[in-house]
Amino acid sequence: MGSQVSKQVERRKAVHTEKKTLADLKKLGEDYPGSDYHPSDRKNWMSELNPDKLVINKVVWPGTHDSATNKIGIPCITRPFAQCQSLSIYNQLEMGTRVIDIRVQEDRRVCHGILLTYSIDVVIKDVKKFLSETQSEIIIFEVRTEFGHEDPPEFDKYLQDQLGDYLVPQDESIFEKTIAELLPKRVICVWKPRKSPQPQRGSPLWSAGYLRDNWINTDLPSTKFDSNMKHLSEQQPVTSRKYFYRVENTVTPVADNPVLCVKPVTERIHGYARLFINQCFSKGLADRLQVFSSDFIDKDFVDACVGLTRARIEGKA
Predict the structure, then answer these.
(1) Residues annotated as region Disordered (predicted)?
(2) Which of 128, 138, 256 is nearest to 206 (CA)?
């Protein structure tokens, strides 16, 4: 018992030290090209930046981690241990989110580990509603079979039937195209099954290798911040690669953590998205940043990504 208590005390000290490290770094400034920009209409921010000039590989895509968890589990009982977003998929898209991360199990219900929420049909309905209300917004829609579960039967056919003419076919040439050149196709759907065959070139769906990341499972904010930077440094510039690379501005509870609810843990890093972009410039890595995701996404996170995107279009970044 004594060793366990000692371990928890050391863990709390480590968290405090790492939070202070980021807070001290933030005091030095978090400006970067485009950091003062705020879109007048987040729901249509891609349209606002001009689809004829906005090249796919120049976009800094604001995304959400475990996107469809706003109603997961049982309120006040199991939900705090798995909820990573408080908004519906539609409200996230309306706020400016453009990368959605969905995990499913065998019966097409969305899940996070063993906890369940609504059917994927609810997600699709929200996506289609958003698409029907906008004209030039492109979405990266990632769907994966959750770890420990089997692939939903014929799920690739389901996605194709549901999203139909919106789907951008798997073709590496799109990375050098503008948004206007993709239209009226508007959904880059990345399907990541665990056992089923991966989508092939020319398919309406994209295979797992086109949306990559290096997940670091930690509750320590500075450790995650530095690890994100290290893995980003190992990537090619966005103009040289033919896949999307994601950095996640999140930390998550781990087994030996005295705090097991998602929100208080992820808040340790939540406010440092702009600092991360600032440090990308300081370290010469800004040309590698592409998909940037967050738990509990908010307007400032969206604006941070959109501002850098605008600066790239204007040749300032």
Answers:
(1) 1-20
(2) 138
